[in-house]
Amino acid sequence: MKMTNEEYKKYTEEHSPRSKSGSNLLRAFLIGGGICVLGQGITDGLTALGLEKTGASAGCSIGLIFLGALLTGLGVYDRIAKFAGAGTLVPITGFANSVVAPALEFKTEGFIMGVAAKMFTISGPVIVYGITASFIYGLLLLLFGA
After folding, report:
1. Can you give the pTM of this predicted structure?
2. Would residue 113 count as lying in a domain?
3. pLDDT at 34
4. Residue 87 resides in a domain
């Protein structure tokens, strides 16, 4: 079947699925924003209980990581992520999910070669580049002062 470029373009436009980017963006914004609102609520609650800002922020991070890991273990986080898309990837709960999900997937291969070996397959690069970037930033700060 011979087609011109214009005919091919028209054919692909007719047969390609329509983009749902508007609804995808809205769901990601709502769920991701909801996670951030939850985090702010945890921080404010811990501050109201008498913790300093840094302690409350650390407690919030710990709480959100625990919640993300727990929901992943219970199979709930995957359903939320399927609905929200990138809205669950960006917050710290997404990091917890990226550590726990491979560990659960490979637990049948044993503790060492399964859980321990596969736990950081997704989050490992994030950790490596995060540490490297913070080292470079600290080095630049040391050299050029602030």
Report:
1. 0.67
2. yes
3. 93
4. yes
- For 36-87, the pLDDT digits (tens) are 999 999 999 999 999 999 999 999 999 999 999 999 889 999 899 999 988 8
User: What domain count does the chain have?
Assistant: 1
| Residues 129, 133: Cα–Cα separation, whole Å | 6
Distances (CA, A) of 56 to 2, 34, 45, 82: 66, 19, 8, 30
Residue 84, domain member (yes or no): yes
Residue that the structure tokens 């917050």 belong to: 91
Q: What is the dihedral of CA 123, 126, 131, 135, to 10 degrees?
A: 170
Longest Cα separation, the chain:
74
Residue 145's pLDDT band (boundaries 50, 70, 90)?
confident
31/82 Cα distance (integer angstroms): 11
More confident residue, 105 or 68: 68
- The answer to whether position 1 is within a domain reads no
Q: Which residue range(s) make up the domain with 122?
A: 31-144
End-to-end CA distance of the chain: 66
